[in-house]
Amino acid sequence: MMKRVKKKRLVVLGSTGSIGCQTLDIVRAHADFFEIIAMSAHSNKELFAMQCKEFAPRHAVVTSESKNSRAELGMLAQLDEADCIVNAIVGVAGVMSTLAAVRAGKTLALANKESLVMAGELVMQLAHEHRARILPIDSEPSAIWQIVNGNMRDAAPTIERITLTASGGPFYGKLRDELRHVTPEQALAHPTWKMGAKISVDSATLMNKAFELIETRWLFNIPPEKLAVSIHRQSIVHALVHWTDGSVGAAMSPPDMRIPISQALFYPDRAVNPEIDMPRLDFSNLQLQFEAPDYSTFEAPKLAYEVMREGGILPAVFCMADEIAVQKFLRREIEFLDIVDEVKRTLDVTRNTPLSVEALNELFI
Ligand SMILES: NC(=O)c1ccc[n+]([C@@H]2O[C@H](COP(=O)([O-])OP(=O)(O)OC[C@H]3O[C@@H](n4cnc5c(N)ncnc54)[C@H](OP(=O)(O)O)[C@@H]3O)[C@@H](O)[C@H]2O)c1
Description:
The chain has 365 residues and is α/β, with parallel strands linked by helices. It is 43% helix and 15% strand. It contains 15 helices and 10 strands. The radius of gyration is 20 Å and the shape is globular.
């Protein structure tokens, strides 16, 4: 395999999480290609200490111990010497790092979908102004990115529709009544993907798909009415692009997040992965099924269309309300069905205002 002359210098925000650890797996397997120059973690100090020992970053931040974590993360996201910032922080805590990275004109490998849900219009506008590049790590947007061959924004006029696939999560096929008393343990047991707690619960409510609709809307400049969801239990086809000439592009891979992560890290090249035992698809016996989602039980994607239509600060409120409700559910303070009900109630009482950094800051306080 060809050796890179100059290593790509990476900042990994959220290195102790599911995406963070898998990013480090790729780096570990391709030490000739990448160097970690900065990392952050929040609470998992033990794992972070081991990671720092192994990768020897020049800058390391534990945000739970920082007096001004936002400023410290912002500093890492804007490091002059960084070639790529990987934002693998979970939830609204990751949004300001995205804004910092795009303002500094960085290449941002973005797992933190909440950044685009809360502030998609602003993030894309700043990325355009500062010539920042956003490379999606989330598997569905990554699949679309592969299908449009890197043409993130220019392909829109020739796209008739984009279908995001969803596994349906652990409660696929269940009716509302059967979901009343499901436990956090059941909600966390995702059938195809191994992920952090918040995104696992979001997958169980289909809120994750709601977020991906908004994420796709902004990344690829596609209006909401051209976006659709299809349940695909196998999680092999991650997205479909329906072109205006009647053809359909699909991107497939085994459900393994190291694939979209490596696509973002190696971009514009592609990894040769002899060191990692990446799974492969076996087409000699592959069944692919697609079906319509049950929106009467899983209402979250319907709410995404509503907040996209309304715009302003509403998508940000949508995202924050979900995060708060998911935390309550994980602490067993509310039931599973209360998550989306609480989000709906919050949206109902919110007075919408235009999206701005100031409006976002007010939400964070
Ligand atoms: N996991 C997946 O397969 C997957 C797939 C697609 C997209 N994503 C997206 O990727 C992001 C990360 O997901 P994940 O599953 O990797 O989450 P995770 O396993 O929960 O990891 C989250 C990371 O963020 C850090 N963190 C938590 N709270 C923080 C705070 N207040 N300030 C700064 N850092 C904080 C955590 O640090 P500590 O662990 O040290 O506390 C950890 O490093 C999410 O936006 C998710 O939607 C994930």
